[in-house]
Amino acid sequence: MKEKQTLKIGKYRLNLNTLVFLLGIAGILLIGLSSLLPRGEKAAEKASALEEAKTYASQLEERLQSILEQMDGVGTARVMVTLENGYQNVYAKSEKVNNDVLQDIRAEDEKKTQEKQVTEQTYILVDGVGGKSPLVTARLEPEVKGVVVVCEGGDDPLVVRKVVDTVKVALNLSSSRISVSRLTAG
């Protein structure tokens, strides 16, 4: 009869097979949990992207405020711009299309055709400092979600219309995404 191998840890005796099994399960759990933990580089990239988007919104606010305050009847203005998303990269892709046509001819009048199209897209990778990374072909600016303008002339319908029209043209927004109100002294 084969003797079971045991390991004594403190006052406990463990079967070696059980210990190996438990260590294997612990390793699998740690590997699974590691994918949930934030990576230092990814967190830094997200923080940098968020900071870039905030800077972009702040610059838009300053430019809009400057333009609006020069318009007749607007007076002092405060502008807030909200963004839908941050900067987005467009990556170069290669595309491979495979068309298969299968015809089944059974009799003179009976013909069956099947077509199958398979498209495979892959990103084009380039060597960089940190290894291979996708080739960026364009960088899209953040999309503006909405604009709030509070100005001294915000209670005059003519001024409100001029402000809305100006913001619409400047940011290519619909008027439903623009709000104009009166600035109260305070």
Spatial order of the strands forming the largest sheet: 3-10-11
Portion of residues within helices:
25-40%
Low-confidence segments = none
What percentage of amino acids are in beta strands?
A: 35-45%
Structural class: alpha+beta
Radius of gyration: 32 Å
Instruction: Give, in order, the helices and strands.
Output: EEHHEEEEEEEEHE
Give me the oligomer status: single chain
Spatial gap, N to C terminus: 93 Å
Largest sheet: 3 strands, mixed
- The best one-word shape is flat
Q: On the 0-100 scale, what is the average pLDDT?
A: 84
Tell me the number of strands.
11
Helical region count?
Answer: 3
Structure notes:
The protein is of the alpha+beta class and 186 residues long. 34% of the residues lie in helices and 38% in strands. It contains 3 helices and 11 strands. The protein has helices at residues 16-34, 40-69, 157-171; strands at 6-9, 12-15, 77-83, 88-91, 93-105, 111-123, 125-128, 131-134, 136-140, 144-151, 178-182. The strands form 5 sheets. Strands 3-10-11 form a 3-stranded mixed sheet, covered by helices on one side. The chain has a two-stranded antiparallel ribbon with strand order 1-2. A hairpin with a 2-residue loop joins strand 1 (6-9) and strand 2. The longest helix has 30 residues, at 40-69. The mean pLDDT is 84.
Q: What topology emerges from the helices and strands here?
A:
Elements: E1 6-9, E2 12-15, H1 16-34, H2 40-69, E3 77-83, E4 88-91, E5 93-105, E6 111-123, E7 125-128, E8 131-134, E9 136-140, E10 144-151, H3 157-171, E11 178-182
